[in-house]
Amino acid sequence: MRRLIALALLTFAVSAHAQNAAFVPVAVWYGGGKARAPMLEADPAAHRDLWRADLQAIKATGFNTVRCWIDWASAEPRQGEYHFETLDQISDLAQELGLRVVVQVYIDSAPDWVGRKYPDSHYVNISGEVMPSNAAPGFCFDHPGVHEAVLRLFNTLAVHMKSKPAFLGWDLWSEPHVINWAEATYMRSAEFCFCPYSVVRFRGWLKKKYPTLDALNSAWYRRFESWDEVEPNRLGTILSYTDFIDWREFIVGKLTEDLRARFDAVKSGAPDRVATSHAAAPSLFTSPLSGDGSPDDWQMAGAVDYWGTSLYPKHSFPVGRDAAWRAALLDFTRSSTGEKGFWVGELQGGFGTVALHISSTVTPADLRMWMWSSLARGAKGVNVYAWYPMSSGYESGGFGLINLDGTITERARAAGGVARAVSANQALFAAARPVAAEVAVVYNPLSYMVGGRRPLTASGPQGEMGNIERNSMLGTYRALFPTNIPVDFVHVDDIASGRMVTPQLRYKVIFLPYPLMLSSDAARALQEFVRAGGTLVSEARPAWNDERGRAKEIVPGYGLHEVCGCRETAVQSTPSGKIEIAMSADFGSLKSGDKVRGALFEETLEPIAPNARVIGRFPDGSPAVIASQFGKGKMLTIGTFLGAPYENDRDENTARLLRSAVEWAGVKPQVSTSAPLEVRMLRSGSSTLLFAFNHASEAVESSIAIEGMRGTARDVESGTPVSFPLQHRFAANGVWVVEVR
Rounded CA gap, 637 and 561, in Å? Predict the structure, then answer.
């Protein structure tokens, strides 16, 4: 009998998981009444009718899901005494109205009893200052008592919620950092956590990486006689900075392990419910050096069912982010999560405000553009933040989809219209996957480590160009964006693993921006990629340093000079921070004599192979750009940085050089349009979903031709048939979604 019961439960769990996986939630944040996250209204039973009316309005607008929340302080005000009344009421009302429920859990809003019971559980700054917890950030998860209490809460909540039919799943951690929702303005260069428990955990991490204390001493150039003497790096020195690299890698890995612990805790109580988490911004826009700790998207994606991101294109800025910036954010998140897709955990619903900083207006067209852009990249969940504007705090009055008095706005109706279209085509969107990309841009966390510990301001050793690591990637992506050629971001660890060269090449061309530090495994894998027929495009000084921060004897390092057929003979920082390269040979759409703008470094490259040819020179005539062949593949080596200056000044010739490298690799656009449009495609069974975006502020009419596309077509939103050739009149900032069978 026990075996039959176990088999029945397993069958139920598998079928429920399959059902959840086939459901694409398009949700709005609503926690009961007008309380802003993570706050809750008192006495939910007294407001039941008002909450029902709100949920009816959410349902009528078109949404299929509500995203509510619980904070630890409200859920467990006294140890072992749990209160989930708010979640119960919302879940029961949602079931009554045919809505699903996603629960956001906030641990940073911690109950005071934790600090009283564990007075040594506070976060500790790099300087030894102890951070008190007010409404946030709570207490350090590395403390064993806190660790146990947090996971007990997650498990208890999971056991409780699994009986709710409307309950779809979780977001286990909103915008993960080591500390959340607290800014210590009185602390200089605040960095966390250096409490005794985090230090012990770091030592355990080191013991796994370095099998003996002698090995650690050799790597760090130290003379420890006991593991108890080992401390996290706090200072920059003129010697080794391997200790700093290890500390930053530990912090990133710790975030991943902490998310996985939450995942395991809820899965043990409710294994059939979806478990997600989302970053404040993808790793493209953050830094592994940040003092509050920033996660690695690829690592975090492996710890949950769905990883995702927040998306606030206007936030509290007077000018919103442009189409290429938004696309890069979404494609980076998509790339990190692979085939299973991602969730947009928070999508800006209304104008933003941070005290006196107020954004430009969020329009109905904005909501349509942002939601469809997410879905066009394979998003499996979109959560609009929020139904009501913020009712308190420094965001008071901002970010709401409707008005605080409850009146429904046109942008709410526009967002609900997208939600309604997704609900009407659930199977289509659930099975949809982006077409495979042939172009990739490398994300390399080691690139941030060059120089070791340094101030997080523009005055540091790399202060000549702020955010150069990010802008090198973003500018490269931006240059390729108008081609409508799909672009992936690829983690350098995936390259090091050899996954780019399988029985066949995963990509035709890989861009290696800002490649100053590479691991030996990554360098060898890139050699094999080119040898097997791929095209590699590298900016200045690839593998100058290894993964321990030590210089290579020849630059490019690790034998990459043999791949590119050249080596560095001289390098200097440009006096103005800028440099021009004159093309000395035709290359793609560039002609001899055309000028390209670089930045920061002027690296002289000497050809050392007969098939290496100089196609660009610096003003003094020294070689700046080398095109070479190696094995079955090719490499383009550029003795300066192009991505970052292009992100800053948008020089068209710089973009043309990067696009010409794609053409040189044999990659061709599959889409052509008669007017400038962004076009994205998903495959869903025997159907293709086509998304076309007019980012112009004027209406345009355009035809869209896609190589090999035939069949019958329909407008996904209206359901009306569409004839070939595809032709559409786009409103200003308009979107057209077509299914081709």
Answer: 10
User: 88: exposed, middle or buried (C-beta count within 10 Å: 0-12, 13-18, 19+)?
Assistant: middle
Give me the architecture of the 439-664 domain, per CATH: 3-Layer(aba) Sandwich (3.40)
State which amino acid sits at residue 217: N
Q: Could you tell me the two tokens for 338? A: 């692979």
Q: Specify the residue for token string 């219209």.
A: 417
Can you tell me the distance from the alpha carbon of 226 to that of 210, in angstroms, rounded to the nearest whole number? 14
Selection from 342, 154, 179, 329 nearest residue 254 by Cα: 179
Which of 623, 642, 679, 635 has the alpha carbon at shortest distance from 661?
635
pLDDT digits 0-9 by tens, 242-253 = 999 999 999 999
SS3 content of the chain, % helix, strand, coil (to 5): 35, 25, 40
For residues 205, 207, 208, 209, the Cα torsion angle rounded to the nearest 10 degrees is 90
| Residue 459 pLDDT > 60 | no
Give the CA diameter of the chain: 85
pLDDT, mean over the chain: 94
Q: Residue 194 is inside which H or E element, if any?
A: none
Q: Count the neighbouring beta carbons within 10 Å of the beta carbon of residue 702.
A: 18
Amino acid identity, residue 680? R
3-state secondary structure of 398: coil
Residues in CB range of 407: below 8 A, 6 or more apart: none
Token output for 488? 């992936």
Q: Are 92 and 164 in contact (CB under 8 A)?
A: yes
Q: 409 is written with which tokens?
A: 């706005």
Start-to-end Cα distance in the chain: 48
| Burial zone of 490 (CB within 10 Å; 0-12 exposed, 13-18 middle, 19+ buried) | buried
Q: pLDDT tens digit string along 666-676?
A: 999 999 999 99
Pairing between strand 357-358 and 353-354? Answer: antiparallel
Is 76's pLDDT higher than 80?
yes
Gap between the Cα atoms of 407 and 424, Å rounded: 26
The residues spanned by each domain of the chain are 24-115+134-180+245-432, 439-664, 671-740
CATH topology classification for 24-115+134-180+245-432: TIM Barrel (3.20.20)
Strands 700-706 and 726-730: antiparallel
Quote the pTM value: 0.95
How many other C-beta atoms can be found within 10 angstroms of the C-beta atom of residue 511?
Answer: 30
Q: What is the pLDDT of residues 549-560, one digit of tens each?
A: 999 999 999 999
Structural contact between residues 298 and 340, judged by C-beta atoms closer than 8 angstroms? no
User: Residue 552 is encoded by which pair of tokens?
Assistant: 């290579």
Q: Are 718 and 689 in contact (CB under 8 A)?
A: no
Residues 6+ apart with CB under 8 A from 674: 702, 703
Distance of CA 33 to the CA centre of its chain: 31
Catalogue the E-assigned strands of 620-725: 623-630, 633-638, 671-673, 678-684, 687-693, 700-706, 713-715, 721-722
Q: Are 198 and 141 in contact (CB under 8 A)?
A: no
Q: Which two tokens stand for residue 520?
A: 């030996």
Write out the two tokens for 531. 């040898």
Name the residue type at position 623: P
Tell me the backbone φ, ψ of residue 341, rounded to 5 degrees.
Answer: 90, 180
Nearest to 103 by CA among 113, 117, 89, 115: 89
Mean pLDDT on 573-595? 96
pLDDT score of 119: 97
* Interval 135-147: pLDDT, tens: 899 999 999 999 9
Roughly what angle, to the nearest 10 degrees, separates helices 242-269 and 213-220?
A: 130
For the structural domain made of 671-740, what CATH number should be given? Answer: 2.60.40.1180
State the pLDDT at residue 183.
Answer: 85
Asked whether the beta carbons of 108 and 138 are under 8 A apart, the reply is yes
Tell me, what amino acid is at 656?
A: R
**Cis amide leading into 725 (omega within 30):** yes
